[in-house]
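Researcher: Last one for today. Full complex below.
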Amino acid sequence: MCLALPMQILAIDAGVATIAAEGLEQRASLTLVPEARVGDHVLVHAGYAISVLSDDEATETLALLAELAAAAEEEADAGAGPA
Amino acid sequence: MQAPVPPSLLRRLAAELAAEARPGLTFMEVCGTHTMAIARAGLRELLPPGLRLVSGPGCPVCVTAMADLDRVIALARMSEITLITFGDLVRVPASRSSLAAERAAGADVRVVYSPHDAVEIAAAEPAREVVFAGVGFETTAPTVAAALMEARQRGLVNFSVLSLHKTMPRPLRALLDLGETPISGFILPGHVSVITGSDCYEFLAREYGVGGVVAGFESHDVLLALLMLVRQREPAIEIEYTRAVRREGNIVAQRLLEHVFEPCAADWRGLGVIAGSGLRLRPEFAGADAAVRFPVEPGPPLEPAGCRCGEVLRGVIDPSDCALFGRRCTPQDPVGACMVSSEGACAARFRYRRLDD
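Model: Here's the assembly. Have a good evening.
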């Protein structure tokens, strides 16, 4: 019910965005994220964009994930992990 | 945007969890969308044996009290009303009927994807009283507030809202106060927190010594949130879902929410009435408040015999502990609300059950 999907804004007309996700075009209201711009990725819930997704790679979460991914890769290269 | 996460990373996350989790930890995922994501990806299979993951009161349809469902049914039965809602609500059994049964008997019940669609119906059919039955948490309530403001701006006097909206922090307090399930930490809802931010959960760590991590909905999000919980030296509220959630939340949505709604007591299936945990329309929106415009007295609510949804929603029992689960109660022929909504703990468990279960 709280499902929200990331979609990219293709165009904006009077506070309504044309958005694309997996090849489908839809419309979503930008009432709740007036700062959204064409090209932004937004989370869309029930026809309304609710968040502009950040592409800031410098967050702690992504740093932790990158560290684990590097470890996972090393493991795979060493042939330690299951295929 | 992030690149897809390789399976080797999921295995690595699971291995880190296994290495670092002390036995006897129970984490609760509060959001129904997490419940569904965890079941679909089979994440329980990846967890170390001593780490238990239980579902909480986070499926909006599931926590809607029988008395409130009965009010929705009573509205749908009024000949002048077109009752509009989200799909999940239609099949939920109320005391003596369901919206699906009422629709089959001739009631004008329609399902929309967006509250905005209900406004368009009100504009297209001015002779009908269009009532939007609003269920959902802080994620959904601002979209209903936006639709209501739009209807008002367009002068649509035939659009009204029955608000059954609820807010998330207080039921978590209620669960911890009950103390039935030992909860070591919470996986906090991702899309509720997009709106609310994470500061509203600080009391969990401060007053109860229970940490929480706001998580996204991919498999790696959930596993990483669990790892963050396991690694907490002191109980704290953290955000894993940093690509979407900011500590302060969505201020525009919060302002709109507060403009249209005010807190009220709300009745939760499994938890009872919790003060300040619901949202009702402010008095200045009485003209668009279906509770004011169409008062109904549906009679005393009746709970289905043997249904243990209440205990499932409090994380006290596993869905499979209920004698009705998978026997008398299935997604095709549900007895309880948790088996109806795709996000209900029972429906998610049934749909993705292992063949040897």
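Chain A has two domains: 1-52, 55-83. DSSP finds one helix and five strands in chain A.
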